[in-house]
Amino acid sequence: MSIIRSIQLNHFDAKEKKGWDKTYWFFDLHSTVIKPNYERGNIPKEFYPHAKEVLQMLSRLDDVCMSIYTCSHPSEIEEYLNYFRENDIHFDYVNGNPEVKGEEGGYGYYKDKPYMNVLFEDKAGFDAETEWEEVRNLLIEKYGRLGGI
Questions:
Q1: Is a pLDDT exceeding 80 seen at residue 109?
Q2: For 21, what's the count of Cα atoms within 13 Å in the CB-facing half-sphere?
Q3: Can you tell me the distance from the alpha carbon of 116 to that of 129, in angstroms, rounded to the nearest whole number?
Q4: Are 124 and 5 in contact (CB under 8 A)?
Q5: Torsion region of 144: left, alpha or beta (phi above 0 gives left; psi -120 to 50 gives alpha)
Q6: With contact defined as beta carbons under 8 Å apart, do 44 and 128 qualify?
Q7: What is the tens place of the pLDDT at every residue in 69-82?
Q8: What distance in Å separates the CA atoms of residue 149 and residue 143, rounded to the nearest whole number?
Q9: Which of 21, 36, 111, 123 gets the highest tally of CB atoms within 10 A of its CB?
C-alpha cells in the first residue's frame, strides 16, 4: 500500500467514519526522514527532499500524533529530538504510544506493539526520495498551506 493510500484510509477516512479526533503516525528516521551516514556518535542531519517541510506541517496539526520509531541509541535519540525541535518539528513520543492502551483479552493488546495508523518506514516500502512530495501535496490539498508552509 502506498503512503498516500495509507494516509487516506487510516487517517482521513478513519477519522470521518469512526469519529476520531486524531490518529497516530510513526516515523522511522534513517533512510526515511534523514539520509543515513552509518557513523555511530555522529547523527546524520540531511533531510530527504520535502521531509522537513512535511514534518513541520504535521507538527502543527491537532489531529496527528507523531512518534519516532527508531533503533537509535538513547543518547542519539536525545540529539535527534533537539535537532528536530530546532527545526520546528515536534514528536509526541519515541518508540511507543502510551495514549492507546489495550486490555488483556480486548480487541488489541498494545504493551509490546504500539498502536499506529500510519507508518513511514523504508523497510515497509516507503520511498523517501519520491513520496515526501506526494505527502506534502496531499496535506496541502486537505489542510491548506498550514501556517505559510
A1: no
A2: 2
A3: 23
A4: no
A5: left
A6: no
A7: 999 999 999 999 99
A8: 11
A9: 36
Instruction: Encode 104-143 in three state secondary structure.
Output: CCCCCCCCCCCCCCEEECHHHCCCCCCHHHHHHHHHHHHH
Cell numbers standing for residue 141: 490539498
User: Which residues are CB-neighbours of 9 under 8 A, at least 6 positions away?
Assistant: 1
Strands, DSSP E only, in 1-128? 23-27, 64-68, 93-94, 118-120
59, with CB counted inside 10 A (0-12, 13-18, 19+), is buried
pTM for the whole structure: 0.92
Q: Does the pLDDT at position 146 exceed 80?
A: no
Q: Are 33 and 73 in contact (CB under 8 A)?
A: no
Question: Distance between CA 22 and CA 10 in Å, rounded?
Answer: 11
Buried b or exposed e, range 133-148, using 16+ CB within 10 angstroms: ebbbebbeeeeeebee
Largest CA distance in the chain: 46
